Amino acid sequence: MQLNIRIVTKNQPQAASIFEEGQVLLIDKPLRRTSFDVVRKIRNLVRVKKVGHAGTLDPLASGLLIICTGKFTKRIHEYIAQEKEYTGTFTLGATTPTYDLESRPENFKPVDDIKAEQIRNTALQFTGDLLQVPPAHSAIKQDGKRVYELARQGKEVVLEPRKIKIREFEITGMDMPVVHFRVVCSTGTYIRSLAHDFGAALGCGAFLSNLCRTRIGDFHLKDAMSLEAFEQKVKNGYSTKG
Question: Measured between alpha carbons, how far is 115 from 125 in angstroms, rounded to an integer?
C-alpha cells in the first residue's frame, strides 16, 4: 500500500531532531491500514529512520497504536509487555478461517436457543490464566515463515498453545447474533482466537466482527490523535506542547 507522503516545512530540521531524540506518539489507527502502514507514513513524515510500533493491530482493527521514534524505539518492548484493553463484537452462528472478517463466514448454525445467561456464563470460562492457540492466519513465524503465508498456501499449520491472562471479560450488550464485549488481557492474547473459542464453547461458532484497542498500560485511546491530525502537526512545525 503506497501512501506517498512528502512534507516540507520551514521547521523540518528542528522537527527531525525532536523525533531523532525520541518521541512516543499515540495514534488512533484507522480501519484497513496495517500497523506497518502507519509506521511507514510517520517515518515519511518525520524523516527519521528509526520508527516502530508497540504491538500490532490487524487491518480490520482500529484504536490505540503506540509509535516510538528515534532513541525511544528502545522502549518498544517495554510498552508491548503492558496490559491491553479492547472493545468490539463477536458474531455468533458461524466461523471463518481467519477468525475475523478477512475471510468469509461458513459453517452456519442457528443461535435462536442461546440465552443471555448462557453467553455471560460462557464469558466467565475465559477469565484468569488460560492456554490459547493463536490463529493459523497470524504473523507468528514457523520455520522462518509467517504462518499466515503457509495457511494461505493451504498448508497445515500446527501452533502450540500459549499462556495468556484475561483479567476481565465483560459482555456489554447483545443484539443477536452480535455480542458486544470488553476485554482486559495480557500481551500475546489474540482476540480473534478468543472469539473462535467462545463460539466453540457455546456450540454455535463465532468470529470477531469488530475490534478496537482502547488502552495499553496507562496509555488511552482518548488521548490519541488521528494520522491526519499528526500530519497537520508536522506541517505546522511539530511541537511537544499542545
Answer: 16
